[in-house]
Amino acid sequence: MVKAQTRLSRRKKRSKRWWKAARLLAKQHQQVRRQPRDVHHKTALWLLRQYEVVDGEDVRVASRVRNHHLAKSISDADWAAFRTILEGKAAYAVSRVVAVPPAFPSQDCSQCGTHVQKSLKVCAHLCPDCGVVLDRDESAARNVLRAGQAHRGAVGPPAMLKRASIGP
Asked: Which domain holds residue 4?
């Protein structure tokens, strides 16, 4: 892309060669702009082919973007667009997407349910009550999965239905 921008800047403005370079640069910008959406579509398709039910946190993106440390990362990931694509594809598939209310899934223990306060810097979940040691994201995924099961009233052993739990 840098090469195309340099090529454009060297051309005489509004000349035939300038327009040709501008079209080339526009195509490259379009390709970069479409890449995240392509990843969203492929990931959603993979999830829905792999799992019958996808439990996900009902993330309020607008409130999370207010955190100026995370705003750019959250906006780049485009969580809202991914969820929209996932729900749209699920409407045509046999799968279902269940949105679980966000109630501190990464701060609650997935084993005993104890609330363990931690900052965003902490990557591991250490429960003082039951002594379980897990990755923070894994513990949160288990909590989202359990909340999704409770939300839709799933009964029976977990092996009966293939499930996926996605976080933000």
From this structure: 1-35
